[in-house]
Amino acid sequence: MASITVRRLDDNLKAQLRLRAARHGRSVEDEVRTILREAANSSTSARMRGEVGEPKADSRASSTRDGEPGNGQFAQAPHPNPLPARAERERKITLIIGGGIAAYKALDLIRRLKERDAHVRCVLTRAAQQFVTPLSASALAHERVYTDLFDPQSEFDAGHIRLARDCDMIVVAPATADLMAKMAHGHADDLATAILLATNRPVLLAPAMNPLMWNNPATRRNLARLKSDGILVIGPNAGEMAEANEAGIGRMAEPIEIADAAMQVLRPAPTGPLAGKRILITAGPTHEPIDPVRYIANRSSGKQGFAIAASAAAAGADVTLISGPVGLSDPPGVRVIRVEVARDMLKQVEDALPADIAIFAAAVADWRVAREGDQKIKKTSSGLPPLQLVENPDILATISKLKQKRPPLVIGFAAETEHLIDNAMSKLLRKGCDWIVANDVSPSGGVMGGDRNTVHLLMKGKSGGETQIESWPVMPKDGVASALVDRIARNISGAETA
Ligand SMILES: Cc1cc2nc3c(=O)[nH]c(=O)nc-3n(C[C@H](O)[C@H](O)[C@H](O)COP(=O)(O)O)c2cc1C
């Protein structure tokens, strides 16, 4: 059965149901489901035991009823909990589909959310129904779809309040310019906007509109207002528009991106030794173009930086990983920004500040060509092409020497092929960072691109104290990553002095 509609209940019974639902933090509809489930279970087990008579109340329900402080205080609604306590696999999402071309992608989003074990209830605006049918949404969600503020089918309680609160979060996709404007101004003249005004759950918007609408000062103002109200926003992405010959920023984020962002919002508060810490990590090489088809690069695979990002996220940190071109997939729970050249990497690093810890594991190209060819440089009989090199920005030194926003712990990597410790020590002093992870990248060691690493950790002594050097045994790169994360956790907890 996809939904429940119970009509012609007497007022007293309705009031009792509401009271019971409020005590258990459920919607009235869910309360009825629970009562029916309990009744069915008890009569099935009674039949199996050969018992007759009244079914017993389930122990969970009765202990909640007796023990809850809110007993008898229905007037205290709205629900005080930011997220209702539910089993991990029962996350409920109210998906509001707005009236834009991208509404068809919202159908795929329903599937992506359900793949992630979410229970999806769809609300379609009047305009959305011009683009997709309630029938399609309901078939994919396995639930009835909601379209009207004044819905004669919802008898138990005000439908918009239930849809606003009986969920763990609300996703609006596509979020039209119109919906954003109404939200920013607190309108509630249809079901979607009434839900959005009545909710105390996290709201994630996936805007989608023509680039001119997106860049219109009115939309910019509304966006800024919504963000400052705590509304979360994903996208829009750049790309081609549905309108012929139009491109720019305005495409709705892909359903998978939206579903992942929603899951991120629903993830329980992180625990672990780095919970609450923002960590910024760079990884991989940079590719410095010579012309449209050639570039200067190095053999860095990004594996060590990615492993550190994964370890830091597993330790509860909020991790941003800025990576050069590598063939690795995003570590779970990590915000990944992909760049190509050193200058972009520095820009992204600066934009990601402030951070508590910055770890610069990327093998940033030291040089780039002074003038990148607009066209492929041709082989000629007149000799070799003159390639003049200029220095790239030094990301580690730049961030280590910041006057403002310098992360309290800055860690660099030194990839050396000779005089490892000496070179790492002088790098530590020259760059102004706090720690250096030195690794021998001589071709014979197979570190570049390989899965194992041998490192020495140089930690500058506090207030001019001696630099400590630790030499770690050869380990897989994820072993090095977790040892480093462990060392960082001990350092910031004050358990060690280095
Ligand atoms: C063919 C067509 C495509 C549209 N696409 C979009 C769109 O992608 N984004 C948007 O913000 N509005 C778009 N609109 C305008 C919205 O449909 C219109 O603003 C509507 O009032 C939005 O209603 P809603 O916000 O209640 O869903 C489109 C309109 C038409 C006729």
How would you explain this protein's 3D organization?
By secondary structure, the chain is of the alpha/beta class. The chain has 3 domains: 1-38, no CATH class; 88-266, Flavin prenyltransferase-like (Rossmann fold, 3-Layer(aba) Sandwich), CATH 3.40.50.1950; 278-372 and 385-492, CoaB-like (Rossmann fold). The chain has 16 helices and 21 strands. It has helices at 11-24, 28-49, 59-67, 103-115, 134-141, 159-165, 177-184, 191-198, 211-215, 217-228, 255-266, 303-314, 342-352, 395-400, 420-431, 477-492, and strands spanning 91-97, 118-124, 169-175, 203-207, 232-233, 237-240, 247-251, 278-283, 288-289, 295-296, 318-323, 334-338, 357-360, 367-369, 389-391, 409-416, 435-440, 452-453, 455-459, 468-471, 475-476. The strands form 6 sheets. An 8-stranded mixed beta sheet has the order 12-11-8-13-16-17-19-20, with helices on both faces. Strands 2-1-3-4-5 form a 5-stranded parallel beta sheet, with helices on both faces. The protein has a two-stranded antiparallel sheet with strand order 6-7. Helix 4 packs parallel to helix 5 (134-141), helix 4 (103-115) crosses helix 11 and helix 6 (159-165) crosses helix 8. Flavin mononucleotide (FMN) binds next to helix 7. Flavin mononucleotide binds next to helix 7.
